């Protein structure tokens, strides 16, 4: 392996970690493997957006209630959340290439099972399995990026992921609507098969096999993390549907379980939860920054339709078009931020991005009662610009703060921070929508702006570590 000098944007945790940094693949091989990883990212992002859009159709076709049909989305989220940390650990123990390939295979096979499901129960079960595959992709994908890109270009690799997520999220509803216009609902899942199979074959042939770190797998920790995170996700969903009593109980039980998990992990020499990485100030601050930003993001994403349709009288189609500038600007800003992350530290770029996001959210919260479309669009674009500039430098710093052998654990914690932020944001949305009256969407945007501001302050504090 070639020793690489540290860059301004992605400082190493120690001189030892720098000496072990991979030099990356040659440009052509790097591009081919990156495309395979991006195919997996696109499949996950498109699938989530399409499944959400298809809920009314699934409810009608499968003769199920709307509340029950929501579990087509929730089942996937639970499957993903409970397997993130185990998938990250297995990536280091068995090898990143094996676990990513398994995740892509499982996701593709589960897509076929979804299409063949004859009842809602079987569809939900297949979606849970699909979520397990998605957890492998989400946890291991960023770690693979660290191995195929040279250190100075890791920001660019992660920017490609951010761009694909943004574009897929923006295009998902339109693609889903087009599929349902010309075909039956199983085709929403069948379209995954050719992409998944092609990406799997190419990835297995072309991707490098980073060295594994054999050690015992922590089964007790895996069960504790799965049960605890699962209870939190299910409880947050219950709050969103105003099922307060058992939802609060589930969340409390999940948090108690997480406390027990940390206690159990602190006694192990090979913990499932990467306590060694969390002890690195740069890594820990980057995790907190991520959680604040994703909480702000989900607060805005959930509340904006209520604001635009409920308070401003916009149609569903108009709402979709007015929100689109946000993900599109993320797609524009992420590659630029990726290039700049090799020159400027995340304490500068991410802080400016989150500050811009906070400003955009505050401007959305203070919109007049009957704004023009232009007033809404430029504020959405400002939010997307800020989020795009935050995301890539922050993720690059998080992925490179520890030694390269812990890339799997870092990728897993990156995904856990995202899910945790979304859960926290969803809980706040549920509480505000239930208790803040007609002005709840405005309150949600105000809280989102505050969280983005807190994230900016945490981010800028990284300049001192």
UniProtKB/TrEMBL annotation:
Assigned GO CC terms: plasma membrane
Record bears the keyword Cell membrane: yes
Keyword 4Fe-4S included in the entry's annotation: no
Bilayer topology: Multi-pass membrane protein
SUPFAM superfamilies registered for this protein in UniProt: MFS general substrate transporter
Transmembrane feature ranges: 31-55, 99-118, 124-145, 157-179, 185-207, 219-239, 245-263, 275-296, 316-337, 344-364, 376-392, 413-434, 440-460
Protein name: Multidrug MFS transporter
Alphabetical list of PROSITE patterns matching this protein: MFS
Residue span, Major facilitator superfamily (MFS) profile domain: 33-464
Domain of life where this protein originates: Bacteria
GO molecular function: transmembrane transporter activity
Location of the protein in the cell: Cell membrane
Keywords, in A-Z order: Cell membrane, Membrane, Transmembrane, Transmembrane helix, Transport
């Amino acid at each position: 392996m070639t020793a690489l000098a540290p860059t301004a944007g992605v400082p190493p945790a120690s001189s030892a970690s720098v000496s072990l940094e991979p030099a990356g693949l040659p440009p052509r091989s790097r591009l081919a493997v990156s495309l395979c990883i991006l195919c997996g990212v696109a499949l996950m992002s498109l699938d989530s957006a399409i499944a959400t859009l298809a809920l009314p159709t699934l409810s009608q076709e499968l003769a199920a209630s709307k509340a029950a049909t929501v579990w087509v989305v929730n089942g996937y989220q639970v499957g993903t959340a409970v397997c993130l940390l185990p998938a990250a650990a297995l990536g280091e123990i068995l090898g990143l290439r094996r676990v990513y390939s398994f995740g892509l295979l499982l996701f593709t096979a589960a897509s076929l099972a979804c299409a063949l499901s004859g009842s809602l129960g079987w569809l939900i079960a297949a979606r849970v399995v699909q979520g397990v595959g998605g957890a492998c992709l989400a946890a291991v994908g960023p770690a693979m990026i660290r191995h195929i890109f040279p250190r100075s270009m890791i920001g660019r690799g992660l920017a490609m992921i951010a761009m694909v997520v943004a574009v897929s999220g923006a295009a998902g509803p339109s693609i889903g609507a087009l599929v349902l216009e010309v075909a039956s609902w199983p085709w929403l899942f069948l379209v995954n098969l050719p992409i998944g199979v092609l990406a799997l074959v190419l990835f297995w042939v072309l991707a490098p096999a980073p060295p594994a770190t054999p050690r015992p797998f922590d089964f007790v920790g895996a069960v504790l993390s799965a049960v605890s995170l699962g209870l939190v996700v299910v409880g947050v969903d219950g709050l969103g549907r105003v099922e307060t009593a058992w939802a609060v109980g589930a969340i409390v039980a999940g948090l108690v379980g997480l406390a027990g998990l940390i206690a159990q992990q602190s006694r192990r020499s090979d913990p499932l939860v990467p306590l060694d990485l969390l002890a690195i100030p740069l890594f820990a601050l980057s995790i907190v920054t991520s959680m604040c930003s994703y909480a702000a993001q989900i607060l805005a994403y959930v509340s904006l339709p209520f604001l635009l349709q409920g308070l401003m009288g916009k149609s569903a189609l108009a709402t979709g078009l007015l929100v689109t500038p946000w993900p599109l600007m993320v797609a524009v800003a992420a590659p630029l931020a990726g290039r700049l992350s090799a020159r400027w530290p995340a304490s500068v770029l991410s802080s400016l991005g989150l500050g811009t996001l906070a400003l955009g959210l505050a401007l959305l919260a203070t919109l007049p009662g009957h704004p023009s479309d232009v007033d809404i669009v430029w504020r959405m674009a400002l939010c997307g610009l800020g989020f795009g500039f935050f995301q890539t430098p922050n993720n690059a710093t998080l992925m490179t703060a520890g030694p390269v052998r812990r890339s799997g654990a870092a990728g897993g914690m990156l995904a856990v921070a995202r899910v945790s932020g979304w859960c926290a944001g969803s809980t706040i949305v549920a509480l505000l929508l239930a208790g803040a009256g007609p002005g709840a969407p405005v309150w949600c945007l105000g809280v989102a702006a505050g969280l983005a501001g807190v994230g900016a302050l945490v981010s800028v504090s990284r300049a001192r570590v």
